[in-house]
Design a protein that fits this description.
There is one protein chain. It contains 13 helices and 18 strands. The two termini are 28 Å apart. The relative contact order is 0.11. The strands form 2 sheets. A 10-stranded mixed sheet has the order 9-18-17-16-15-14-13-10-11-12, with helices on both faces. Strands 1-8-7-6-5-2-3-4 form an 8-stranded mixed sheet, sandwiched between helices. 36% of the residues lie in helices and 16% in strands. It has helices at residues 12-24, 29-48, 61-75, 91-99, 131-143, 239-251, 301-312, 321-326, 345-352, 359-370, 405-418, 423-441, 447-457; strands spanning 2-3, 53-57, 80-84, 104-105, 115-119, 146-150, 172-176, 194-198, 208-210, 230-234, 256-261, 274-277, 288-293, 317-319, 339-341, 373-376, 382-384, 390-392. It is α/β, with parallel strands linked by helices. The model has no long low-confidence stretch (mean pLDDT 94). It folds into 2 domains: 2-203, Rossmann fold (3-Layer(aba) Sandwich); 230-453, Ribokinase (UDP-N-acetylmuramoyl-L-alanine:D-glutamate ligase, 3-Layer(aba) Sandwich), CATH 3.40.1190.20. The protein binds ligand NPW and potassium ion. Potassium ion binds next to strand 5 and strand 6.
């Protein structure tokens, strides 16, 4: 069982292509299923800790994995029962079923067990499963102490995070060969529990992966405040949001944070923030490593003028909040320079329209169209670069759903960008630090706490 951090993420089609390439290189389908099933059995053995196991098997290769695992568990004297829905549909699935020398319990009458293993459907699920299948799965899941899914909980479509049925929540999902998008994209991601990878020895790659602990910039003996990164925060109508972004940039490690506003006497944040009146010229200081524009900017003519000046400054940009409402998405493609856009669902739809495509596909398309790194925020944040590279984040703390946390994220990413990380790395590091700070804050924190917690997770 391998943790998913940093691992490639493959669609069902890409997974089949990787399997086909392995077979063309001499591996058989039976060998792959044997590795998958035996790896799953080892994981179940550890997780079940001697408690009786029920394996529900479907007609395809997910069910084949289930039969191989059940046979391996029985050989190791683990108490295990099997129920099957439908006859095996392929030669390899028939081979797997032939390994199981115990009884196969009738589907509708199966009695639950403390440990449930769902091997009904995986990446081959092509339509909503029959209610007869889901009723048994839900009944056994409700009665189990531990629920384990093989590859994907049955009823989840593999690529877009869609639920094709009322899927019960699992404790652990054992992904065979590679992590799939629906392990990370909502609403499916809330059903999968902990995701662990079962290595089946086939080479996989591609441009999509799960986020991992990023390379964070660190000061050394030659560092000074400008080399640590200078971040300019452009304030506007709502001063508090820009204060949060500025505090976050400082606490994420920026050496110098410049808060540009017209108002005086409204400072809320740390004294370490340098406060100046906004002028368009103040944005062209070539020591500025990142401009953060959007938190609390407003949407009036002043806001528009400031956004125009930021776009014209030639400095790397983090574009958030109100700036995403003002900007023309397609005009961004003509803007030469580094840009990171940080839309939540509403801002994304405003900029790029609604679509039935999956969240990662929408993020990739938006990144290519705007020539920007796009941080598509949410309970399932996905980052895409213009060249198609995609980073998926495991679900973050639901307590992040409070005002101001987006402003904190924009400032954090600004600090990473100003410190010299490339835009995709800066976005990944920013989202990672933000998620860690939220974890550390626990429950019912406010955005100010989150910004303050960044110093401790910066490590
Ligand atoms: N790729 C790899 O490298 C490896 C993959 N491995 C494993 O294989 C799994 C993928 O196997 P798979 O392709 O056979 O698909 P799977 O999910 O078992 O279901 C397909 C079957 O169900 C049927 N069916 C579909 N929807 C249905 C519905 N709503 N209601 C009823 N029936 C429905 C469908 O029939 P059909 O659509 O033709 O009617 C077909 O018979 C993968 O998740 C992993 O566990 C590993 O062994 C090792 C290497
Ligand atoms: K399954």
């Amino acid at each position: 069982m391998i943790p998913s951090a940093g691992r490639p993420v493959l669609t069902a089609q890409a997974m089949r292509a990787a399997e086909a390439a392995a077979m063309a290189a001499g591996t058989t389908e039976i060998a792959l299923m044997r590795r998958a099933g035996e790896g799953i059995a080892q994981a179940i053995l550890r997780l079940a800790a001697g408690r009786p196991v029920l394996v529900l098997c479907g007609p395809g290769h997910n069910g084949g994995d289930g039969f191989v695992a059940a046979a391996a568990l029985r050989r190791q004297r683990q108490p295990v029962r099997v129920a099957a829905f439908g006859e095996p549909r392929s030669e390899t699935a028939r081979w797997a079923r032939s390994l199981w020398d115990g009884p196969v319990v009738s589907w509708d009458d199966v009695a639950p067990a403390p440990v449930l293993v769902d091997a009904i459907f995986g990446t081959g699920l092509s339509r909503a499963p029959d209610e007869r299948i889901m009723t048994v799965l839900r009944r056994c899941a409700d009665a189990a102490i531990l629920r384990i899914a093989v590859d994907l909980p049955s009823g989840i479509e593999s690529d877009a995070g869609r639920l094709l049925a009322d899927v019960p929540a699992f404790d652990v999902t054992l992904a065979t060969g590679a992590i799939k998008p629906s392990h990370l994209v909502q609403p499916a991601a809330r059903c999968v529990g902990q995701v662990r990878l079962i290595d089946i020895g086939i080479p996989i790659g591609g441009g999509a992966r799960v986020a991992s602990l990023p390379r964070l910039p660190h000061p050394d003996a030659s560092s000074h405040k400008y080399s640590r990164g200078m971040v300019a925060i452009v304030a506007g109508a709502m001063g508090g949001a820009a204060e949060l972004a500025a505090t976050a940039a400082l606490r994420a490690g920026a050496g110098y944070v410049l808060h540009l506003d017209d108002r005086t006497g409204v400072a809320l944040g740390p004294n370490a923030i340098v406060r100046r009146s906004y002028t368009p010229e103040s944005l062209t200081d070539n020591r500025i490593g990142a401009i953060v524009i959007g938190p609390g900017l407003g949407r009036d003519d002043t806001a528009r003028a400031r956004l125009g000046a930021a776009l014209g400054s030639g400095r790397p940009l983090v574009i958030d909040g109100d700036a995403l409402r003002l900007i023309e998405a397609m005009a961004l493609a003509d803007h030469i320079g580094v840009k990171i856009l940080t839309p939540h669902g509403g801002e994304f739809a405003h900029m790029f329209g609604d679509s039935d495509a999956s969240k990662p596909e929408r993020a990739r398309k938006a990144a290519a169209a705007t020539r920007s790194v796009v941080v598509f925020k949410g309970a399932d944040t996905v980052i895409a670069a213009p060249d198609g590279r995609t980073i998926f984040f495991p679900p973050a703390s639901p307590w992040l759903s409070t005002a101001g946390t987006g402003d904190v994220l924009a400032g954090t990413i600004g600090a990473m960008l100003a410190a010299g990380l490339d835009p995709l790395e800066a976005a990944e590091a920013g989202v990672w630090l933000h998620g860690e700070a939220a974890r550390r804050c626990g429950a019912a924190f406010i955005a100010d706490d989150l910004a303050d917690a960044l110093s401790a997770v910066r490590g």
